[in-house]
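Researcher: Here's the sequence for the chain we discussed earlier.
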Amino acid sequence: MTVMRQDIGERPYTVDDLEDMPDDGRRYELIDGMLLVSPAPALRHQKIVAKLIVMLDALCPEGMHVLPAPFAVRHSRTTEVQPDLLVAREEDFTDKLLPVAPLLVVEVLSPSSVMTDTNLKKSLYERMGVPSYWVVDPRQPMLDVFELNAEGRYELVSVVKGDQAFEAVRPFPVRVVPVELLGTLK
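Model: Thanks. This is the structure I predict for it:
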């Protein structure tokens, strides 16, 4: 279960507080000063992340990189998240983090992350200006694709289930079939 706490005493959490978090296999993230603590992901979650990394990295154009969590995307002193997977331009990275919006963020749902990934993080990524946001449900399997419209709001542009294919254009061309992301898992 994702644990959320509002603040330390009288102040919101900051990125400085993340440095003091234990290295215990959990993911520690901040959204607007609120601490989110998530448990280590399960098998289906990790299999999907691994398959997406291999698939996207094989087609990733020069000058872009595909990275899995944990890698920090820092929006401000009170907001730092670690998407399950991100794609960003090489010039936008520092050695330790990504201080600007990625081109693509992918979150793979876990039972404890459904509300966070589909509401809180989706809202944050929209506010940051992440052009493409994919949400993968490993139970179905299913892929929801959101893209920013002209007004800077996410629009659901595709819902792909099972053996249906999604032909992505952003941030680069790639074909994703949700059931194939599970590999040999059933």
